[in-house]
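A further point concerns the way the authors explain their paired sequence and structure data. Each protein is reduced to its one-letter sequence and a matching series of backbone shape codes. An entry of this sort, consisting of the sequence and the corresponding backbone structure tokens, reads as follows:
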Amino acid sequence: MPVWREQARRLGLQARFAVTGELTEPDVHAAVVEAVGELLVNVARHSGQHEVLVEGSVTPTHVTLVVRDDGSGFSPDNASMRTGLRTVDRIDNRIDER
């Protein structure tokens, strides 16, 4: 996604993308772009790293994406729901309600 490449560049990240498939539903496309954008911001703010990998696949009915970096990490079970994670959770819920 060119928009992710540009955002990663602006954030000072060296990003690699390995995403197969294409999003055809405009609302889902916009939501996925927003969610990954928020995760790239989280990498830039919190990971202490400058390299990130976004990988996964999309189909008309399913989206699976993973955003990875080599930062210190956190356990999702123990992570506080900071603004960035709440934003991604809200976007995910918005897609699920469709």
